[in-house]
Amino acid sequence: MRYISIKYLQPCFTAFLVITMSGFTASAQQTIPLETADNVLVLQIDQTKRLNTLYLGAKLANTTDYALIGDARSSTADFTGMFRSAYTPAGSRNVLEPAISVTHADGNNSLDLQYVSHESKKLAADISLLSIRLKDPAYNFEVTLFYKSYYEENVIEQWCTITSGEKGTVTLQKFASANLNLQAKHYWLRQYHGDWAKEMRPDETELTHGIKTLDSKLGTRANLLMPSVFMISLDQPATEDAGQVLFGALEWSGNFRTDLEIDPQENLRVISGINNYASAYQLKPGETFETPAFVYTFSAKGKGPASRNLHNWARNYKLLDGKGTRLTLLNNWESTYFDFNESRLSGLLKDTHNLGVDLFLLDDGWFGNAYPRNSDHAGLGDWQENRRKLPNGIAEIAKTAQADGVKFGIWVEPEMVNPQSDLYHRHPDWVIKQPQRDEYYFRNQLVLDLSNAQVQDFVFHTVDSLFIKDPGLAYIKWDCNSVIYNAYSVKLGNLQSQFYVDYVRGLYNVLKRLRSKYPVVPMMLCSGGGGRVDYGALQYFTEYWPSDNTDPLERIFIQWEYSYFYPAIASANHVTDWGKQSLKYRVDAAMMGKLGFDIVVSKLSPVDLKFCQDAVAAYNGIKAVVWQGDQFRLANPDQGSVASMLYVKPDQTCAVMFNYLVNFRYGEGSHSPILLKGLDAAKRYRVKEINLYPGVKPVIDEQKSYSGDFLGKIGINPVVTNERSSVVLLINESNQ
Ligand code: GLA
Fold it and tell me: What residue's CA is closest to ligand 1, atom 2?
C-alpha cells in the first residue's frame, strides 16, 4: 500500500514544496489525508481508481490510522461502489444525486472519473493547495478537484476545473463545486430564509432520507429568499461550545444549489455549486470550466469555534482589506430619501463633522436629468448628476466635504435600469427581458445584461467616472435591488442557458477591473438589504449591508445569525429611527460591527447629540476589538430574554460585552450572571460600563477586579432590565 500524508507539507516546511503522485497501481488503495490544525479530510483511491471520501472530521492522533478508516466504517453494502464518491459523475453506475452530469459531443450522457494523479503545493506558511486529476477512460474529458486548505483557520475552499478535449461541444448539465460526505447517526441542518427586511431567519431541523435542496433561482439579489450559508450538526444539534458541526457557503453571487442527501448507508452527501437550473453550459474543444469555490469549516467543539474559524479566514484571506480599518459614516437615505439639494447636503456635511464620524454617504437620488431620480420609478442608468439638485456636480459636494473635514462617499446601482431612463431607450439590447413577452418589474426596474462585455464596460465606467470626477471619493455603496425576471440576453443568442453563469462572471470581471484600479477604496455590498451577502462578492467589498431593517431589536437577531459566517468588521450597521428602542439601544446595537448613522442629526436634542458624539468617540476606542477580536456568543436571544455578545482582543487584555433585553414583558432581564468566554483565566480584569446616556450612573462597580477564571466560571451580571435594556461593558486587564 502506498501512502502519502500531506501533513508533512504543513508550516514547518519551506514554501512551494510540491509533491506529485501518479502511476498508481490498480490493486493498491491510496489514502490522501488533508490536515488542518484540528481537522482532517481523508480521501482514498479505491482498487478501481475511483476517488472516495473516507472521513471528514476531527484529526486522528496517528496519521497512519487514516488508512484504516475505510475498513472500520464500511456498513451495509454499497452495491454501486459510488456512494462515497468525492465527485460523483452521472450516467455510469451512480444512482444518487450527481455532482457532475454531462452530455458528450456524441450525445452520450455517461461519465466515469478515474484517478490519474495528485499534487500538493505549499502556497504559503498557512496555505496548501491539493489538486487531484480525474479522467474519463472512455472520453477525452477531465476534472481536476482543488482543495485549498488554510491550516490555522481550519478552513477548506474546494472547487474544480472541468476540461473537454473532445472533438465537438460537450454540454455540462450539472457542475458542482464540492461533493462532501459526512457520517453520523443523525444530521441537523440549520438553514436560512428571508425576504426584504427579514434576512437570516433560521430553521433548524433534522434531515430525513431523500434530498433536501437549498437553492436560489433569482439571478441577482440571489439571497433575497435564501442565502447559501448553512450548518450541519452531526448526531445532535451543536451548541455554541459543544458538538460536531460543519459550516458551509458557496462563494458565488448568483444562483446556487446545495443538495443534502442521506445515502443508503446513512452517510450525508453534501453537493454544492452553481445552480444548474436553466444553466446547461457548452464546453468547446479544449475549453475549461472553473467552478466557484465552496468554503467550509468543521468544528468538534460547537458553533463558536466554527464561526471564529470563518472570521479568521475571512479577515486574513478573503474579505477585502479584512485586517484594515473602516470608516464611520452618516448616510442620508432615511433622513432625506430622494429629496435633497446642494444646500441641504451642505447642512448634512456639517452634521457629519459635528457627529464626529469619518464620512458622509450620499445615497440614492443624485442623478438623472431627462428622467430625474426623484423616486424609484425613474433615472437608473443615467449616472449624470441631476442639475437641479446638484448644479455644480458631485465635485462641489466633495469640495465642501473636504472643507468640513469629512470624507465623501456615494451610492450607485450600476447593474440596473429604469425603463424611464435615457439608457433604456439608447440601448434596449443591453436590458434583460424577453423579446416576445411583457416586461415585468421589480422595484420598477430591470437588470442590465452583464454577460455582454459592452455592458461590463458601461458599468465599469459608471463607477470609474465617479472617481475621475472626485479623485478623493472615499466610499461606494453598491446596490442591487432587483431580481432577474424574463432572463434573456440579446448578446447570448442561442446560448441562453449560459446566461445566469455569464452574468455573475461579468459582474466579477467589472469588480476585478475596479479593484485593480482602486484596490482598497471601501465599498459596501448592498442588495435592497442583505440580498447579496456571499464570499464570492466579499473579496471585492469591505463590508455588507445586512438588512434595510435597522430596528435594533430585529438587528440583534439578524446580526446574530450573520455573525456565525461573517466577521463583525464586515457588518455595516446604521443607527436609524426604526424601532421603538432608545437611542442608546440603537447605537449599542450598531456598534457590533461597523458603525454608521442615518438619522437627522440637526433634529437631535442637545443631550441626544452629546450621547451620539460620545458614543462615536467610545466606538473609536473599542472598534479594533470588535473588528479584529475573537467573537463569543454568550446569551442567545432565541433562548432567553437577554442577548449577550463578547469580542475579545486576541492578546486577551481587553474585551467588550454587549447585552440587550430582547423580551420586554414585565420583569424580564438578566437575573443571573452571564459566563464570559475567551479571557485569560490567569489575568485580572476590571469591568466598566461604557456608552452611558448623559447623566445616567453606572450600576456595575468599576472598582472591583475579577480573575478571568472567575468571569469564566461565575460570570458577571450586566444588570439588564427594562430600564437598562442595553448595557455595554468594557473589560480591561488590570494590575490589581
Ligand atoms: C436599497 C438599499 C437602501 C437604499 C435604497 C435606495 O433599498 O437597501 O439602503 O440605499 O436602496 O434606493
Answer: 528
The pTM of the whole model exceeds 0.85: yes
Shortest-distance Cα residue to atom 8 of ligand 1 = 528
Q: Cα separations (Å) of 132 from 73, 170, 292, 407? A: 24, 22, 17, 49
Are the C-beta atoms of 730 and 718 separated by less than 8 Å?
A: no
Q: Strand 170-183 to strand 267-274: parallel, antiparallel, or no bridges (unpaired)?
A: antiparallel
- The answer to whether residues 172 and 162 touch, using CB atoms and an 8 Å cutoff, is yes
Kind and range of the H or E element at 190? strand 187-193
- Output phi, psi for 234, to 5 deg: -95, 135
Contact predicate 254/292, CB 8 Å = no
3-state secondary structure of 379: coil
Round to whole Å and give the CA distance between 229 and 565: 8
Stretches where the chain sits below pLDDT 50 are 1-18, 23-27
The amino acid present at 86, given as its one-letter code, is: A
Handedness of CA 658, 660, 662, 668 (dihedral sign): positive
Please work out whether the CB of residue 561 comes within 6 Å of at least one atom of ligand 1: no
**Environment class of 60 (CB within 10 Å of its CB; exposed 0-12, middle 13-18, buried 19+):** middle
Whole-angstrom distance, CA of residue 158 vs CA of residue 246: 14
Atom of ligand 1 nearest to the CA of 526: 8
CA 420/CA 382 separation, integer angstroms: 10
How much is the pLDDT for 24? 44
Would you give the distance in Å from CA 352 to the centre of its chain?
29
Report helix, strand and coil shares of the chain as percent, to nearest 5.
20, 30, 45
Tell me the C-alpha distance between 719 and 660, whole Å: 10
What is the Å distance from ligand 1's center to 480 Cα? 9
Which residues, in sequence order, are bridge partners of residue 595? 573
Q: What is the rounded CA–CA span in Å between residue 546 and residue 72?
A: 45
Question: Which position has the grid cell 447570448?
Answer: 492
CA separation for the pair 358, 326 (Å, rounded): 9
* Cβ-based burial of 561 (10 A; exposed 0-12, middle 13-18, buried ≥19): buried
CA-closest residue to ligand 1 atom 7: 528
State whether the beta carbon of 526 lies less than 6 angstroms from ligand 1: yes
Of 79, 137, 80, 81, nearest to 112 (Cα)?
137
Write the DSSP assignment of 487-547 as a string of letters: ---TTTTT-GGGHHHHHHHHHHHHHHHHHHHSSS--EEE-BTTBTT--HHHHTT-SEE---
Which of 479, 527, 549, 597 has most ligand 1 atoms within 8 Å of CB, for mutation? 479
CA–CA separation, 689 vs 666, rounded Å? 24
Q: How far apart are CA 214 and CA 227, in angstroms?
A: 8
Cβ 415 under 6 angstroms from ligand 1? no
Do 177 and 291 meet the contact criterion of CB atoms below 8 Å apart? yes
**CB environment 711-736: b (16+ within 10 A), e (fewer):** bbeebbbbbbbeebbbbbbbbebeee
d(CA 78, CA 591): 53
Q: What is the pLDDT of residue 26?
A: 40
Q: Which of 526, 527, 547, 558 to mutate to test the pocket of ligand 1 (most atoms within 8 A of CB)?
A: 526
CA-nearest of 335, 336, 248 to 297 is 248
Distance, CA 528 to ligand 1 centroid (Å)?
5
- CA dist 75 and 96 (Å) reads 18
363 in contact with ligand 1, CB cutoff 6 A: yes
The answer to whether 158 and 177 have CB atoms below 8 angstroms apart is yes
Q: Are 113 and 126 contacting, i.e. CB atoms less than 8 angstroms apart?
A: no
Nearest atom (ligand 1) to Cα of 528:
8
Residue among 299, 373, 232, 278 nearest 38 (CA): 299
* pLDDT of 14: 29
pLDDT of residue 75: 64
